[in-house]
Amino acid sequence: MNEIKKPFARSLNDRMIAGVIGGIAHRLGWNSTLLRIVFVIVSIASAAFPGILVYLILWLLMPNEAD
User: What is the model's pTM?
Assistant: First the structure.
């Protein structure tokens, strides 16, 4: 029951651009392809969610898996 959670980190193996979505998906135990699709749809459909800006900020703040 005492589960050790890994910190959020950019994926080195599951990346399209920088590994941000792949790292989030691995941390949460979700399918990375599905999460990417949802991220793109929400980014396009919502003016209140600046997807590119959020992605760039996460790219800068999240460390690589190896670090």
Answer: 0.78
